[in-house]
From TrEMBL:
It catalyses: DNA(n) + a 2'-deoxyribonucleoside 5'-triphosphate = DNA(n+1) + diphosphate. Keywords: Coiled coil, DNA damage, DNA repair, DNA replication, DNA-binding, DNA-directed DNA polymerase, Exonuclease, Hydrolase, Nuclease, Nucleotidyltransferase, Transferase. Residues 632-839 form the DNA-directed DNA polymerase family A palm domain. This is DNA polymerase I. Single-chain monomer with multiple functions. GO terms for molecular function: 3'-5' exonuclease activity; 5'-3' exonuclease activity; DNA binding; DNA-directed DNA polymerase activity. Belongs to the DNA polymerase type-A family. InterPro entries: 3'-5'_exonuclease_dom, 5-3_exonucl_a-hlix_arch_N, 5-3_exonuclease, 5-3_exonuclease_C_sf, DNA-dir_DNA_pol_A_CS, DNA-dir_DNA_pol_A_palm_dom, DNA/RNA_pol_sf, DNA_polI_exonuclease. One of its GO terms (biological process) is DNA-templated DNA replication. Pfam families: 5_3_exonuc (PF01367), 5_3_exonuc_N (PF02739), DNA_pol_A (PF00476), DNA_polI_exo1 (PF22619). The keyword Cell cycle does not apply. SUPFAM superfamilies: 5' to 3' exonuclease, C-terminal subdomain, DNA/RNA polymerases, PIN domain-like, Ribonuclease H-like.
Length: 875
DNA sequence: TAAATCGGT
DNA sequence: CGAGAACCGATTTAG
């Protein structure tokens, strides 16, 4: 057993410090958490580094302390604690209790005094002491055995005050810190000190005289000066100030060192508090174990086959898979429940069951599921066509609140207070330790999922109806899931030999550039490492530093472009970057994703991920295939139709977001512009620059285009100045002129922010919601971000609504017309089909018609289209 | 695992 | 005053 180590924490001071040092975080129910968060990260760090054996958190008790007896104005004029902080104290106490750390407060005494008293006691018992506070006053307690930690910004950044550190920093002993404060005072505690004496003067005086008392004993010898007069004049005040600043080390506390023994945290309790406060990063990082959770008993049967009468008209079904890659992974098992009986069956047994297969394919048998798209796709690989999905927990949760993250049933269920499922991690383990458990464990786990879906269905549907979002969910997202599933399963064919050929050529160019760059740099280095590259550019070659990142020099493209004239290596690096990106992401990356059986890529569209309602695409991401630069655009030549005699047909909305803005803002000029079919950027340029159509130069149009983009994103002068490379002032003038020309837009932007503040969320055309808790934040950054989001989300989200509706209408129309054409991809404002050549003529009519009429706006929607032998040719 | 970078709309 | 365009995913380095 080593030496005892005592940790004494100044609770109030640390909470204050954290509150002001960190942005105003909130948890899901809107409670502010930043002070508790800062306290926690600091505590975790110290626990880990110091491993204390005894801990106490001291708090200030009430408003009055013994110091008020001698000086009524003590701590007077203090701002009262902000409510956003006050509300955090109960949670802070709860957290401390969960750590099994003792907390203490005593009438009439401040936390300082409690800490000072215990520190002294511990020292006499020859223990090491660490004091942590945000308040430098405590440094007066430093001795050889007592170290005072003062948190700096960020809370985990700590300055350690030992007597020698204090000596180094101020040239004073710890005891003289009190004298210093006596002389200089402390505005935050309303301690007066001597007027005109600040830190510098106080230190100078103390170096000469040693203490306040010694100073006044010898003051007659001091040579005449203004300062001397001040000192004499304020002698009483200085002495009183010193007294006030002195921490009392003999407070009558009924607490002994034995009482603050630290047994270690109750890990489960700590995790619970973290959960409640949404400290996700801490939960992820920590290795705290949750005690085997008491989950309610569930009865389930493991069956080999299912008699028909067990398969009801409405059931919750869950398909358990190995992982999220449902286009390649295996099914682990199935569970079914009708709320009365729950059963589990393995994939192998299920394949032998005609009854189950028929039931799954029967449209009239209603299924409650979660992520039905994944189930549909994986079942299709097993030769089963899933039909009749009536409820999808994943999609319903996403509509209730798109901020809900996680896609497994346990996580989603928890969002609605349902906790009777264990985390996948506890069942399977994670990383290399992942493994399938024994059958009964697995069966129970999977059964619980089906049961959770069954239990939550009525609650969530009720919530959707209450929010008037049931139609959005049931008529849009749910049918869309099935369409997306079909698109993914169909896949798009990739000609690997084209990619390989391009890769070979790229390889040559890249290695030539590499040689050239190393030559110009005078040494070999990894061009892909921004860190190494930064050293070469800004240290070795001495190029001017335009922008810095958190960790060093920025070497981003916009920075390099500004440096092009400085050194010819810069252009080579830009070229290298561009080609290396193509090679690694779009040649090698894409080839890895091609399924050898069918030479196709089968992306997964994430339907419940983005906060605006857009889709995203993964493995591979087919929504960011290059197009802007010709070299990259050629990648599209590798995407080809799956059959001879077919083509790829692409149709995209023209200016959909600005049209949505015109509709929502009802701005007269904007609506008019779209109604007469003008080029919107030219129109904007005319209004902003006050010129006629034929006087709009290409530069004016370019500027107008950037302004239009800015408007959609929730404009700021800074953002526009960056995108146009102009000054902020000029950008601000552009914006001003724009809003003057389009007053309806101005009004819309103001109204939507107001509405967000009032309701706490914004909505799209089809009533999709996004909650914006930060819209009322006092933190400028957070609030500004929320305001821009309030402006952008209804626009981006409504555009997403429109194309989703178009996909559903398009799917229906293709079926109606008996066409073979297949929808393959969606790229935010664009749909890509493959079609037999014979159907092109009809598609040229149908596709624009369906897309343009998906939702009626007060301005027309316009669709452009093209087709060709490859995606490249369908421009 | 986080940060930097860059591809798309 | 502040510090900032909206929404994504993949690859690479570096700790």
């Amino acid at each position: 057993m080593g030496k005892e180590k005592v940790l004494l924490l100044d609770g109030n001071s640390l909470a204050y410090r954290a509150f002001f040092a960190l942005p105003l975080l909130t948890n899901e129910s809107g409670i502010h958490t930043n002070a508790v968060y800062g306290f926690t990260t600091m505590l975790q760090k110290i626990l880990e580094e110091e491993k204390p054996t005894k801990i106490l958190v001291a708090f200030d008790a009430g408003k009055t302390t013994f110091r008020h007896e001698s000086y009524g104005e003590y701590k007077g004029g203090r701002q009262k604690t902000p409510p956003e902080l006050s509300e955090q104290f109960p949670y802070l106490r709860k957290l401390i209790d969960a750590y099994q750390i003792k907390r203490y407060e005593k009438e009439l005494y401040e936390a300082d005094d409690i800490i000072g008293t215990l520190a002294k006691q511990a020292e006499t018992e020859d223990m090491d002491v660490i004091i942590v506070s945000g308040d430098k006053d405590l440094t007066q307690l430093a001795t050889d055995q007592v170290t005072v930690y003062i948190t700096r910004k960020g809370m985990t950044d700590i300055e350690k005050y030992t007597p020698s550190h204090i000596e180094e920093k101020y040239g004073l002993s710890p005891q003289q810190i009190i004298d210093m404060k006596g002389l200089m005072g402390d505005t935050s505690d309303n301690i007066p000190g001597v007027p005109g004496v600040g830190e510098k003067t106080a230190i100078k005086l103390l170096k000469e005289y040693g203490s306040v008392e010694a100073l006044y004993e010898q003051i007659d010898n001091m040579k005449k000066s203004k300062m001397k007069d001040k000192l004499i004049e304020n002698e009483e005040q200085a002495k009183m100030s010193k007294k006030l600043a002195t921490i009392f080390t003999e407070a009558p506390i009924d607490l002994k060192l034995e009482d603050i023994e630290y047994p270690g945290p109750n890990e489960e309790e700590v995790l619970n508090v973290w959960q409640e406060l949404s400290f996700k990063s801490l939960i992820d990082k920590s290795d705290y174990k949750v005690e085997e959770k008491e989950t309610a008993e569930i009865s389930f049967e493991i069956v080999k086959d299912v008699p028909d009468d067990m398969l009801k008209d409405v059931m919750a079904v869950h398909v358990e898979m190995e992982n999220e890659h449902y286009h390649t992974c295996l099914i682990l098992g199935f569970s079914f429940t009708d709320g009365e009986r729950t059963f589990y069956i393995t994939f192998e047994d299920m394949q032998q069951s005609e009854a189950i297969k028929n039931w799954l394919e029967d449209e009239s048998k209603k299924k409650y599921m979660s992520d039905s798209k994944a189930a549909q796709a994986i079942l299709k690989r097993a030769g089963i066509e899933l039909r009749g999905v009536e409820f999808d927990l994943l999609l319903a949760s996403y509509i209730v609140n798109p901020a809900i993250s996680g896609d497994d049933v346990a996580t989603l269920a928890k969002e609605f207070g349902y906790t009777d499922i264990q985390a996948n991690e506890t069942i399977y383990g994670k990383g290399s330790k992942w493994s399938v458990p024994n059958e009964s464990t697995l069966a129970e786990h999977v059964s619980r999922k089906a049961f959770a879906i069954w239990s939550l269905q009525p609650i969530i549907e009720e919530k959707l109806k209450e929010n008037e979002q049931f139609d959005l969910y049931y008529d849009l997202e749910l049918p869309l899931a099935s369409i997306l599933g079909a698109m993914e399963s169909e896949g798009i064919k990739v000609d690997i030999s084209t990619l390989e050929k391009m890769g070979g050529e790229l390889e040559k160019k890249i290695s030539a550039l590499e040689t050239e760059i190393h030559e110009l740099a005078g040494e070999k280095f990894n061009i892909n490492s921004p860190k190494q590259l930064g050293v070469i550019l800004f240290e070795k070659l001495g190029l001017p530093v335009v922008k810095k990142t958190k960790t060093g020099y920025s070497t981003a493209a916009d920075v390099l472009e500004k440096l092009q004239s400085e050194h010819k290596i810069v252009q080579y690096i830009l070229d290298y970057r561009q080609l290396a990106k193509l090679q690694s992401t779009y040649i090698e990356g894409l080839i890895k994703e091609v399924h050898p059986e069918d030479s196709k890529v089968h992306t997964r569209f994430q339907q419940a991920l983005t906060s605006t309602g857009r889709l995203s695409s993964t493995d591979p991401n087919l929504q960011n295939i290059p197009i802007r630069l010709e070299e990259g655009r050629k990648i599209r030549q590798a995407f080809v139709p799956s059959q001879e005699g077919w083509v790829l047909f692409a149709a995209d909305y023209s200016q959909i977001e600005l049209r949505v803005l015109a509709h929502m803002s009802n701005d007269e000029a904007l609506v008019e512009a779209f109604n007469v079919g003008m080029d919107i950027h030219t129109r904007t340029a005319m209004d902003v620059f006050h010129v006629e159509a034929d006087e709009v130069t290409s530069n004016m149009r370019r500027a107008a285009k950037a302004v239009n983009f800015g408007i959609v994103y929730g404009i700021s002068d800074y953002g526009l100045s960056q995108s146009l490379n102009i000054t902020r002032k000029e950008a601000a003038q552009f914006i001003d002129k724009y809003l003057h020309s389009f007053p309806g837009v101005k009004e819309y932007m103001e109204t939507i922010v107001q509405e967000a503040k009032l309701k706490g969320f914004v909505t799209t055309i089809l009533n999709r919601r996004r909650y914006l808790p930060d819209i009322t934040s006092r933190n400028f950054n957070l609030r500004s971000f929320a305001e821009r989001t309030a402006m952008n989300t209804p626009i981006q989200g409504s555009a997403a609504d429109i194309i989703k509706k178009a996909m559903i209408d398009m799917d229906a129309r293709l079926k109606e017309e008996g066409l073979q054409t297949k929808l393959l991809l969606q790229v935010h404002d664009e749909l890509i089909f493959e079609a037999p050549k014979e159907e092109i003529e009809r598609l040229e009519k149908i596709v624009p018609e369906v897309m343009e009429n998906a939702i009626q706006l007060s301005v027309p929607l316009k669709v452009d289209f093209d087709y060709g032998q490859t995606w490249y040719d369908a421009k």
